[in-house]
Each structure stands twice: as C-alpha cells, then as structure tokens.
Amino acid sequence: MRGTDPRVVLGLHRSRHERRLLTGALDLGVTALDTSTNYLGFRSHQVLARTAGDLLPKFTVSTKVGYFPKPGGAEHSLDPVRLQAAVEQAAKELGREPDLVFLHNPEQSLRDSTRRDQDVLMQACAALDHAAAKGMCAAWGVASWDPAPMLSLLDRTGPRPAVLMVRAGLLVGARVLDTAEALAKAWGLDGGEVWGMSPFGGSASTPVWDKIDPRVFLRDGSQLTCRQAAFRTAYHLPRVSSVAVGTDEPAHLGELVGALADDVEERTVQEYRSLLRDGLSGQLV
Question: How confident is the model at residue 280 (pLDDT cuts 50, 70, 90)?
C-alpha cells in the first residue's frame, strides 16, 4: 500500500443508522459511508435520508445492488433491468446520486462457470456501467464475499469496475486472498482501487480475538490493542486502500482510526500468507 494512506469506510451492515454515529464519524475524519439496498430490511436509504439527509453531502456514499425483497425474505438477481432500476431507486431514496454502486455478491447468481454465467455477469456489469454513464451514480464496482466463481468468467473486453471490494483480515483463507488478488489483477485494478470488508470476520467480540496477538504484524504495536492491530493488519490481507467496518459506537470507530498510525511489517505478512497456504497459520498468531 505504498503511496496510499489507509482509509476507514463506515459500513452500515447491521447498523442502527443513528445520527450520532454519522456525526461522530465526521468528527473523526471518516467521510466515506457504505450501505446497501438490502440493509436494515431494505430501508437503509430511506432511514439515512430521513435521519441524516443534511449530513450525506459531507460523505462519499457507496451502496450495493443485487438483492431484492420478496415475500418472507430476499432474492438475488443479476437481471440488468432490475439492477438499473435499483440504482435509480437508490438515488431517489438517498436524495442524491451515490458516488459508487457495487454489484453485490454476483457469485450468488453464478452457478456453473458456463458461457451462460459469463454472459449473465457481463450483462450485469454492463448495466451498472450504463447507469454510471447516464449519471445515476458516479462510478460502479463489484463487492464479493467469494470472488472465485467470477475469475474464470471475466471477459477482459467488457466493462471494468472502478473498485473491487472483498473480505480482508486475518480470518480470510488463502484461497479467497489469492483469488481476490488475481481478480484485481485481471481487471487491472491497483491497490487504491481495492477495498476490504469484514476485517473481524463478522464481529470484533468473538473469542478468537482474545486468543491471538496480531501485534506481531506491526512495527510498533505496543500501544495498540489486539483488535486495533487486527484491523490495521487487514489492509495487507489482501492489500487494500480502504476497509469498510461496521459499528454503532463512535468511540469504537475512533479506536480503529487510531490504529492507522502504525505500520505493518510486510515480511511478517508474507510469512503468514505462506503459513496460510500450508494450513499452519495458528503457529504464527
């Protein structure tokens, strides 16, 4: 990540969308906000506009499309007409065009790695590319929990996303890390165009964070907590410029922002990657 300052993106997955969280983020210098059409029971955009509409112009706002409500739950679709309509609806609900719209977990609708899947993926990407060209959003990207199904389907003559968002951190397996890097390379994305998400594997309060000491990855982590060190290390697993992290507490967000001042030992990260591939990561942490 040389030449790129690490950036925190406030993620709203499982968030209560309280105004005090957004004002607290701004006080900390966190000016990137990430949500999705399906967050908060498909009400995230409306609640944001209602509770903090005056604050949204102070943020760069990213959202995601791909999940749609249905009776009793949600369904995933890469239908280009539905995707474009979702982008347009997001802008209406937010009261502004999003700065970035991600195609949300496209792998959920890719089953067989066939030519049909390739056509489905490329048409979905083209739909978001068209939405950006029409001014419905400033740019588009892909957010993927498991990028492996996409790698063999890429048509390098097709639309190129501005950003790829993938899982990041110490709990991400070697296969996902390697695939994410290969996908970013195939799309010609550099470190500044790759974001991480879920740096704690879903929760910073799970017992695993009391059993390992990620400070071994930092040059001088003695002043940081283990959770702060885990967050800082996530920017190198894989190499990303921004990490989306969720919380409802501004104080917790402040702790994570404070972790960015430390530097990561790249050699230690590479040793860890080697151990991951050998299935021996527990020996290091």
Answer: low
Sign of CA dihedral 219, 224, 228, 229: positive
Cβ atoms of 87 and 101 within 8 Å: the answer is yes
Burial class (CB in 10 A: 0-12, 13-18, 19+), 3: exposed
pLDDT digits 0-9 by tens, 156-186: 888 999 999 999 999 999 999 999 999 999 9
Q: Is 0.85 topped by the overall pTM?
A: yes
Higher-confidence position of 284 and 142: 142
Where in the chain are the domains?
7-283
The pLDDT of 264-276, averaged and rounded, is 94
Between β-strands 242-246 and 194-197, what pairing exists: parallel, antiparallel or unpaired? parallel
Superfamily of domain 7-283: NADP-dependent oxidoreductase domain (3.20.20.100)
SS (H, E, C) the chain: CCCCCCEEEEECCCCCCCHHHHHHHHHCCCCEEECCCCHHHHCHHHHHHHHHCCCHHHCEEEEEECEEEECCEEEECCCHHHHHHHHHHHHHHHCCCCCEEEEECHHHHCCCCCHHHHHHHHHHHHHHHHHHHCCCCCCEEEEECCCHHHHCCCCCCCCCCCEEEEECCCCCCHHHHHHHHHHHHHCCCCHHHEEEECCCCCCCCCHHHHCCCHHHHECCCCCCCHHHHHHHHCCECCECCEEEEECCCHHHHHHHHHHCCCCECHHHHHHHHHHHHCCCHHHCC
Query: How buried is 29 (Cβ within 10 angstroms: 0-12 exposed, 13-18 middle, 19+ buried)?
Result: exposed
Provide the token pair at 228.
């702060």
> Which pLDDT band holds residue 4 (cuts at 50, 70, 90)?
low
Q: Are strands 7-11 and 242-246 parallel, antiparallel or unpaired?
A: parallel
